[in-house]
């Protein structure tokens, strides 16, 4: 399982390096601001993978810019790294394993007071509503892609649409579950 996670981390990093050179710090911030809703990486994952990418010839270390205030090591993708990224994108995605603490608590909810499950579901609804608003805010900043050539905005729109639809489905599930709990006799 660890090897799979590292290999996916490798491709997340290559994807960001494909747009421009970045430091480990820059990669972490870019991940948080863009794909952080569905993919996260820690510094503890990023820095070892950067070293691995350099050893594999998929990235290079750039000279440190001595003129800038922050002297961070920057990395750039190589042609071999771009080919590695393209090859990975073209392969089928592995099935996802799913861990969800809320679902685990709901599954065993009969072992506690139903108010605990109600509270968890209400908190979940609040989180999902906020996420949905965030995704819709992102969506509103994108250009209209109707009759436009295929470009990175189309792919960005696809991931934002996924977030909108998933949060809407999650809200429906939470409301349905609350109704079931409230109709059942305690």
From TrEMBL:
Residues 13-86 form the Transcription regulator PadR N-terminal domain. Residues 99-180 form the Transcription regulator PadR C-terminal domain. Pfam families: PadR, Vir_act_alpha_C. This is PadR family transcriptional regulator. It comes from Paremcibacter congregatus.
